[in-house]
UniProtKB/TrEMBL annotation, chain B:
It is a multi-pass membrane protein. The chain crosses the membrane at residues 24-43, 63-80, 86-103, 187-206. This is ABC transporter permease. One of its GO terms (molecular function) is transmembrane transporter activity. GO terms for biological process: amino acid transport. InterPro entries: AA_ABC_transptr_permease_3TM, ArtM/GltK/GlnP/TcyL/YhdX-like, MetI-like, MetI-like_sf. Belongs to the binding-protein-dependent transport system permease family. HisMQ subfamily. Residues 18-206 form the ABC transmembrane type-1 domain.
Length: 273, 221
């Protein structure tokens, strides 16, 4: 199903200039602030992710990039500011009060999240990890969910392991299943929280290549990562966070070759050495 | 007639006591399991006002001798105009008592449940109830399996206390036969055999279940 509509999107990306693309924001973050025990981790962050865009968030550890990502699907609740997903505000309803849990769950399901530590459900096999939420959250039929799950497992190269349990998989395989699991919810935006940071170096490539395929298919993605080359290759926009502030956002070419701040220049130098 | 022959001729009494014990045991541990699951669910975050009273109930039960609880239900409740017959008092006491133990076993394992899995469930749009029944509870039960098996054996042995509130179960049968014919040794040896046999069968079943969870990487059997 999305094969068809993504190929249209890929075509559109190649021919239509940036400015003419859909102006609707997949994710729109305004004046976001968050502190833990009096320490400000995010300070008045504004960020716009357009439909079809891949945004990577860089920054040294403790800069607040994971917190920013986790605020998008309300795993962390910001102190101030607002987040809209596809035009709908998350976490707070129209009356300005905390969202009822069911409504929150529905908005959350419009995003898909991939975690650093995979977080697969170990009592379910690979196929059932992928079908669990579509069946029990979206109310899909079992046959429908399984057919879709098998397609997605094929896409991430995990079809042969459909009946295996997570404990028997390598880290890279687990992460690919976790990506299929998130995709199965047909989210409008995919959130990746350091998807390769827990992997052995030789397993990083297989996960990055899956994410790269998704970007080619036109998925909207926000990726927190430490992989510079990957960020440069895959991003439409690179965002740099430092002590809770976005101090630079630019297209990857500008960001990596001609950053405007000294802080980013130093960060890139250190990464290269 | 030798003592053993006497017991053989009275075997119907043993069998009826045995089936009565198994009935009480089956019913009360099923109820206890449900009580344990229910308490675990109520202990799941976001209800701090419930947590403290529940912990008090659980700990209070665990620190109470089982026999006192059985006495309380059978002899004490009539003072409040609640009359349960001996059988239901026994089943009720076992269910509540072991339910609290189940709850404590579950709670301990719940504390070590990886928070990442809960986050993944939330991120995939799960609400609390579905998350609990689909993702948390099945894993907790699989992980606590050896402890639950142990608790089942305790519960089986506790059924013997019910002889004191006049429930006609296995120990009561042995008691009555030993009193009638003055052959306590043989009568109680037979009863021990019954309790052992049931315990061994339970152990085997629990071990078999281990294969199921070993396949999922929960333990190495």
């Amino acid at each position: 199903m999305f094969e068809k509509n993504t190929s249209e999107r890929v075509g559109a990306e190649q021919t239509v200039p940036d400015a003419a693309r859909s102006e609707q924001a997949a994710v729109s973050i305004r004046h976001l602030s968050k502190s833990f025990d009096g320490v400000e981790v995010l300070r008045d962050v504004d960020l716009e992710v357009r439909e079809g865009d891949v945004v990577t968030i860089l920054g040294s550890s403790g800069s607040g990039k994971s917190t920013l990502l986790r605020c998008i699907n309300w795993l962390e609740q910001p102190d101030r500011g607002s987040i809209h997903i596809g035009g709908q505000r998350i976490g707070v309803n129209d009356a300005g009060r905390p969202m009822p849990v069911r409504e929150l769950a529905r908005v959350r399901a419009r995003t898909g999240m991939v975690f650093q530590s995979f977080n697969l459900w170990p009592h379910l096999n690979v196929l059932h990890n992928v079908t669990e939420a579509p069946i029990h959250v979206l109310g899909k039929s079992k046959t429908q969910a399984e057919a879709h799950a098998r397609e997605l497992l094929e896409k991430v190269g995990m079809s042969p392991k459909a009946d295996a349990y997570p404990s028997t998989l390598s880290g890279g395989q687990k992460q690919r299943v976790a990506i299929a699991r998130a995709l199965a919810m047909q989210p409008e935006v995919m959130l990746f929280d350091e998807p390769t940071s827990a992997l052995d170096p030789e397993l990083v490539g297989e996960v990055l290549s899956v994410i790269r395929d998704l970007s080619a298919e036109g998925y909207t993605m926000v990726i927190v990562t430490h992989e510079m080359a990957f960020s440069r290759a895959v991003s439409d926009k690179v965002v740099f966070l430092d002590k809770g502030l976005i101090i630079e956002q630019a297209d990857p070419e500008t960001f990596f070759t001609n950053p405007s701040t000294e802080r980013v220049r130093k960060f890139l130098e250190r990464e290269e050495s | 007639m030798s003592n053993w022959e006497i017991l053989w001729s009275a075997r119907d009494q043993f069998w009826s006591g045995f089936f009565s014990t198994m009935e009480i045991f089956g019913l009360s541990i099923s109820a206890a399991f449900l009580i344990g699951c229910g308490m675990l669910y109520l202990l799941e975050g976001s209800r701090p006002r419930l947590t403290v009273p529940l912990r008090v109930v659980i700990d209070g039960m665990r620190m109470l001798p089982f026999l006192i609880l059985a006495y309380l239900l059978y002899y004490g409740l009539p003072a409040f105009d609640i009359r349960l017959d001996a059988w239901w008092s026994g089943v009720g006491a076992l269910a509540v008592y072991h339910g609290c133990y189940f709850a404590e076993i579950f709670r301990g394992t719940r504390l070590t449940f990886p928070p990442g899995q809960v986050e993944a469930a939330k991120a995939h749009g799960f609400t609390k109830g579905k998350m609990f029944f689909r993702l948390i509870l099945p894993q907790i039960v699989m992980q606590t399996r050896p402890l639950l098996g142990n608790q089942l054996i305790y519960a089986l042995k506790d059924t013997a206390f019910l002889v004191i509130i006049t429930v006609q179960e296995l120990t009561a049968a042995a008691n009555s036969l030993s009193g009638t014919y003055f052959i306590p040794t043989e009568a109680f040896i037979v009863v021990i055999g019954f309790y052992w046999a049931v315990s061994v069968v339970m152990e085997i079943i629990i071990k078999q279940c281990g294969r199921f969870s070993a396949k999922r990487g929960f333990d190495n059997v």
